[in-house]
Amino acid sequence: PKLSETLHETVLSSLPVMRQFAVRWSPDPVLMRRVDHELNLLRLQPRKTNAQRFQIAQYYLIKAFSLRARVSDPFYSSPGEELYFDRSQGAQAVEYLNQLLAQPELDRAGWSGGALALIGFFHLSDHDYVQASRMLDRALAEMGQRDETGISRYQVQLLAAQADILSGKRQRAIGRLQAIIEDDRLPNQAYTLALEHYGDALRLMGERDKVPQILNKALQLYK
User: Fold this and answer.
1) What region, left, alpha or beta, does residue 34 occupy, with left being phi > 0 and alpha being psi -120 to 50 degrees?
2) Cα–Cα distance measured from residue 65 to residue 24, given in angstroms and rounded to the nearest whole number
3) Among 110, 112, 147, 171, whose Cα sits 20 to 30 Å from the Cα of 119?
4) Could you give the CA distance from residue 128 to residue 135 in angstroms, rounded to a whole number?
5) pTM of the predicted model over 0.85
């Protein structure tokens, strides 16, 4: 099951805590039990560091994407959707990220860019594309030389481009995606994902003559 407009599977799999688990994200009950265990341990800490707040936020975002167990569970597009975004879990993540951002500037140096990026991801998942775009723009502005979070700038650029596409700023999205695919340091999978979204942005802009070649190249790279 996919919620492609949020890029959720790619983003969640690339979170630092998931890299420590050495698995890709899925709504697997075994993974969710492990996340719950780690989350409960962290929540018991009386005075939390920025690193711990950031970890807790990641765990809540991982938990926010769930399989719909009952017909009565919320959905976005149709009752047939298998996966949904649990806004209450996502809001818990935002609460911890806002605690981090409320620290004095010196204390949150190196953390604010990643925190803003995850808040932007929350708004993207919550279908508030304008607010997502604002937060991701701020995240890119805050991501300087020092970064403690482990969130890649490429990932934030890709999320910002997706928020631009969905909020109607398609020309700006194309500019962002062109900048991404011109980076020859990108790993193959990251380049291919950006190429796919570049083709989709061009399609939405009506420049369909360029799209087949781009998507065929992405398809070959995926294979």
Assistant:
1) alpha
2) 14
3) 171
4) 11
5) yes
